[in-house]
Amino acid sequence: DPGLVYDANLTDYNRYSCAVWSNPKLVYEYPTMRPPAYCNSSICDGGACAYPQALLDFNFPSFSLPRLSSGFRKGFTVKRTVTFVGALPKSKKVQFDPLILLPSGITARVKVSRPKGASGKGQGGYTKGLRFTAAGQSRTFTLTIKASTSAVMPPDVWRFGSLTWVDADKKWAVRSPIALQVTS
Predict the structure, then answer these.
(1) Please, how many CA atoms are within 13 Å of residue 103, restricted to the half-sphere of its CB?
(2) Quick one: pLDDT at residue 124?
(3) Do residues 82 and 141 lie in contact, with contact meaning Cβ atoms separated by under 8 Å?
(4) pTM of the prediction?
């Protein structure tokens, strides 16, 4: 009874293949970059990449953020979709709130997209947590991570943290590891 899952289907793996095979060196150096219009993946057969997306947006339950520049105002923003697979409590609704643990000098913000047609508080179509009223519902969120200038670490040193979605009743705690490498 995991509560939430990060589903990855065939389309997600096609997007991942296009991102990886477009240019492996560029993927590491510029992980937010989308692949070019044409890629070398066998999925694309050397033609147009049917599913362009940044490698960081692969719908996987962990986050790997290489080469996060310290002091870079935008940081990295990654997108994920989770699906509620638990049994609803008697209240017929459940909300998961984010708990983020990161090294000193690293900050993060989560924005959850409000489902179409949903009402409620939140600015710009976003809410604070993941709200579900039925099993099988999915919600999309973005995680933005920034490094302050005080977060400079030696090159190639990885630091670790986590994003954990915790429901109000504390029945579920769905933890996603975050690995990040800060550069000056």
Answers:
(1) 17
(2) 47
(3) yes
(4) 0.78
Report yes or no: 70 and 184 within 8 Å, Cβ to Cβ: yes
pLDDT at res. 71: 61
Hey, how many other C-beta atoms are within 10 angstroms of the C-beta on 146?
Answer: 21
Decide: 89 and 9 in contact? Cβ < 8 Å: no
Q: For residues 134 and 138, give the distance between their C-alpha atoms in angstroms, rounded to a whole number.
A: 10
Q: List CB contacts of 87: < 8 A, sequence separation 6 or more.
A: 1, 135
Q: How do beta strands 63-69 and 173-183 pair?
A: parallel
CA 125 from chain centre, in angstroms, equals 18
In a 3-state reduction of DSSP, which class is residue 168? coil
In this prediction, residue 64 carries a pLDDT of 86
- Dist. CA 28–CA 173, nearest whole Å: 31
